[in-house]
Specification:
The chain has nine helices and eight strands. The chain is α+β, with helices and mostly antiparallel strands and about 240 residues long. It has two domains: about 10-150, Jelly Rolls, CATH 2.60.120.10; about 155-230, Winged helix-like DNA-binding domain superfamily/Winged helix DNA-binding domain (Arc Repressor Mutant, subunit A), CATH 1.10.10. Strands 1, 2, 3, 4, 5 and 6 form a six-stranded antiparallel sheet that branches.
Length: about 240
């Protein structure tokens, strides 16, 4: 029998954020709680690799995970970040395909693994849960489409400004207006879709223009309106 002493209950998470699991019945909650397995991961740990066969998906209980694809040259293209309450890896379960991306921890995390059979059972028996999962999938597709448009139509400077604003929306600012996520310059470049050297140069320009301040990996947002003006050049 599994030791369940340190496994967080789904109900405790649902009370903290908007979750599609709120659509489950008490009996379904018990089923998920019993069948899931939760583990701790350190920064740099890979959850799953692109092209691998997965037999379940993950719910983020705490921490931050980056989702990325790897190009022919081995360079990462970061698609998105998953934080508390987010689901990762579920689309491969629904489609029956190999993982279409990789997932790596960038901030120490606790992830709950839920078997694919559990997800398929819930989709088949709970209409509200199925609809919420469909809406989540469509939202992710919309984000991907917007990113493709940005890559085609926006300059690197505009994309970097937009990325900083999105990071602010996703992770919020602390009391000193510092982004509550720590990223390397390479990781920022892999989100923007450019060379690391270009991001370093543009961050320096943003700092000189008093749009941001920088202390190591910490980025302080000084002028949101000007960043919005830069990022919306083609909107």
């Amino acid at each position: 029998m599994k030791n369940r002493e340190h496994i967080p209950l789904c109900a405790s998470c649902i009370n903290d954020f908007e979750s599609i699991f709120k659509h489950l019945t008490p009996e379904e909650h018990q089923k998920v709680d019993y069948e899931k397995v939760c583990n701790s991961y350190k920064r740099g740990n890979v959850i799953y690799h692109e092209g691998s066969r997965t037999n379940g998906f993950y719910c983020i209980h705490s921490g931050i995970v980056k989702i990325f694809k790897t190009g022919i040259d081995g360079r990462e293209q970061i698609i998105t970040f998953a934080k508390k309450g987010d689901l990762i890896g579920f689309r491969s379960i629904l489609s029956g395909e190999l993982a279409c991306s990789s997932a790596k921890v960038i901030d120490d995390s606790v992830l709950c693994f839920i078997p694919g059979e559990t997800l398929i059972s819930l989709v088949k028996t709970n209409g509200n849960f199925s609809l919420a999962l469909m809406q989540l999938t469509c939202k992710e597709l919309g984000v991907a489409n917007a990113y493709i448009t940005d890559i085609a139509q926006k300059t690197v400077r505009e994309r970097l400004a937009e990325v900083l604003l999105k990071l602010m929306d996703t992770f919020q600012l602390d009391s000193d207006n510092v982004l509550q996520v720590s990223l390397t310059r390479e990781e920022l470049a892999n989100i923007v879709g450019t060379a690391t050297e270009s991001v370093i140069r543009l961050l320096s320009e943003f700092k000189q223009d008093k749009l941001i301040d920088i202390n190591g990996r910490k980025i302080k947002i000084l002028d949101i309106k000007k960043l919005e003006k830069i990022s919306n050049a083609f909107n």
